[in-house]
Amino acid sequence: MTDLLKSIGRWLDARLQLGQTIADVAAHPVPRSSASWWYIFGSATLVVFILQVVTGICLATVYTPAADRAWDSLIYLNYHQPLGWYLRALHGWGSNFMVALMFIHLLQVFLFGAYKFPRELTWVAGCVLLLCTLGMAFTGQVLRFDQNAYWGLGIGASIAGRTPIIGFKVVDLILGGPIIAGETLSRFFALHVFVIPALLIGFVGLHLYLVLRLGINEWPMPGRIVRRNSYIAEYQELVHKDGEPFMPHAAQKDLVFAGLIILSLLVVAAIAGPIGPNGQPDPTIIQTVPRPDFFFLWLFSLFALLPPWTETVLMLTGPVAVIGLLFALPFISGTGEKSWRRRPFSVVIVILAVTLVGTLTWLGTFSPWSPVMDAWSATPTPIDYVKGRTPLELQGAVLVQSKQCRNCHSLGGEGGMRGPALDDTATRLTRDQIVRQIIQGGGNMPAYGKNLTPAEVNALVAFLATMHPRGEPPARDSARPALPASSQ
Amino acid sequence: MDTEKTERTTRRNFLFRIGIAINAIAIALFAIPIVGYVLSPARRFTWLDWISLGPLTDYPEHQTRLSEYINPFKKAWDGETAKIPCWVRRLDGNQFQVFAINCTHLGCPVRWFAESELFMCPCHGGVFYSDGRHASGPPPRPLYQYKYKVEAGKLWIYAGQLPTLGHPNA
Prior knowledge:
The structure holds 2 protein chains of 2 kinds.
Chain A: H1 2-16, H2 19-27, E1 29-31, H3 41-60, H4 70-79, H5 84-111, H6 120-143, H7 147-160, H8 167-175, H9 182-214, E2 225-226, H10 231-241, E3 243-245, H11 246-249, H12 251-272, H13 297-305, H14 308-332, E4 336-337, H15 344-366, H16 375-378, H17 391-402, H18 405-408, E5 410-411, E6 414-415, H19 425-428, H20 431-440, H21 454-464
Antiparallel strand pairs in A: 1-3, 2-4, 5-6
Chain B: H1 3-7, H2 11-39, E1 49-55, E2 63-70, E3 83-90, E4 96-100, E5 111-113, E6 118-120, E7 127-129, E8 134-136, E9 145-151, E10 154-159
Antiparallel strand pairs in B: 1-10, 2-3, 3-4, 4-9, 5-6, 6-7, 7-8, 9-10
């Protein structure tokens, strides 16, 4: 039996002529320092990508890329197709895994100075892979053709529509027509299934080829400076003096980690299940709160928090500038120190970027800037705030609910966070200031002068003037003499 | 020009040059239908047509109501996405304001709250007054409005494309 296999192997190798190439790749020397647990994230990203291709092809055998059928086919996959729910879960969570691993790989490569001479193009190819992966994540979210996908496309189109002069034509091109509809989904299907995967496969090939040809980056030692005229000789000396064959010394760690990643993906997908779809993509169902997937939440937050007058400029130039800088990095600092210990500026950039994206993502999970659309009708008024109140004050408490004040202002920790909580309004504003704020608005609050009668304003102010913690006196107009506490 | 090189123009590399030239022309011609096909959604300057929102009796005076229409440029496989909602505000008599559903910030669907007479957006907290003016939040302009007319007892709007800042005439 083994003889037969061996002879088949010899026959194949005589025709394919691959044996020697594979042996060379396996035996190519890598610096001993690079056979490290820090160097496993790139290969793990690739492994997850291969899994994505497999699960993606399976899903494509059932998923229907037509606007009137896509949502139904997702429901079919989730509930009727045997194991459809699990393949959707593997594909959806695989996407999260791939984005996460890719970013860890990016940070590691950046901090280890691996983009420096002569590996500039390896980095550039990696940047293309980064864009493609994010492109897959966004187009994949669109193929999950639900309410979030529909309004997410609206957000994308609205950003594109801000481009001067040609904006409205760019919108037509993105949507494949004048509105988000059948051709939009088909366009994104073509991108997600043909165009971007082809680019990914091509650039993964280039990326790997360059890693093999130029050699894996050595562990950066402080003081070991990259110079264009001597680096390649120094690297060759290093791998030959203090090198190891790639197999098994470096590959074994990649292998173990990739196995663990696949196992954790299997477990996470089994526990968490498929991602969506949420409501069907019917734009007339406007009782919806559109949110992007986790890895785009930080952008969603950024659009809420940027000062409005900077938005159009930043939306259009920001991505170009950031992506441009990423691509230009190896040409800006292609030589010099590799070690993060001697590159404090780079470390600061990483800390700032991670903190910024992390904070914005965290804010995006509860988006305090959005009104809570049903707080006025669905959230109870805290009992303490109505106990012992006069009829006029109680009428004011009713108005706080019925005029939707609570969509933006919380009471007892429940309600919107767009404006300040009302629990201690009276300690911050005098009665006159409360009247002015309600009638004229200001500081991001709409003016209610037109839709409140004087009697309603009176009741509202009477209620809000009682909103101060026990023991903390209400705000007082300093131009008026202090009154005894009993008359407050 | 190096005479030695020109002398070495053999039949074979002459044919090779002809081959390159023919392919360059062929590929350029091939690209024309491809590019035209891909760019075709942008072939019209605007996508607008008159479409009815139903009888005037559906819209009581001094009220703002949700309405919907089927996109005039609908495809057979658009499904529910061909339905587009909009807000109709009837003032006195045949005076109307017909607002696009899309927030002018980033296109999310604004919701009307009759009690506080505000439109609120669930995405980034944009708020508009009953007449569409900006009240609060990041939106850069008032709500988009459709052109409308009243004909044969019906309300008609001039609609068909997703309104964006580049395409404000919804």
